[in-house]
Amino acid sequence: MKVYIDENLPPQLARGLHILQQPLNQREREPIEVKSIKDEFGQGTQDEDWIPKAGKENAIIITQDYRIQRDKNQFALYQEHGLGVFFFKPPSKNGFTYWQMVEQVVKRWEELKKLASKEKRPFAFRCSSRADFEKI
């Protein structure tokens, strides 16, 4: 399974999760590769450009950009390309701090993997800093 960390999150988070996941991949039914959208597709790449590519890889996206869910065109795009999306809703308009985001993703990593492997794509889940994932 390929997991992409959106560019609104630090690419170091993707690199760190990728490293931490490696020893577990030998036991996983489907090995997990974690990549940064920024590193893979370039800074500022339009969603319309990377979403089809990620869809071909049957990828999962982790983001705090809820606009994808609200914008009709972007919503249709991720639906059309069969993505699984996990939205992390920040506690304020400023978003999560670096360490808050790391904490949120790491804390929910096992649940995220379980949901991603069970759910039929396309799908979307969201969570806040205080609540578990809920399907949307």
Describe the fold and architecture.
The chain has 136 residues and is α/β, with parallel strands linked by helices. The protein has one domain. Helix content is 47%, strand content 19%. The protein has 6 helices and 6 strands. It has helices spanning 11-25, 37-41, 47-56, 67-70, 72-80, 98-118; strands spanning 2-5, 33-36, 60-63, 84-89, 123-128, 134-135. A 6-stranded mixed beta sheet has the order 2-1-3-4-5-6. β1, α1 and β2 form a beta-alpha-beta unit. α3 packs parallel to α5 (72-80).
Entry summary:
The protein is of the alpha/beta class. It is built from six helices and six strands.
Write the layout of secondary structure elements.
Elements: E1 2-5, H1 11-25, E2 33-36, H2 37-41, H3 47-56, E3 60-63, H4 67-70, H5 72-80, E4 84-89, H6 98-118, E5 123-128, E6 134-135
Parallel strand pairs: 1-2, 1-3, 3-4, 4-5
Antiparallel strand pairs: 5-6
Helix pairs in contact: 3-5
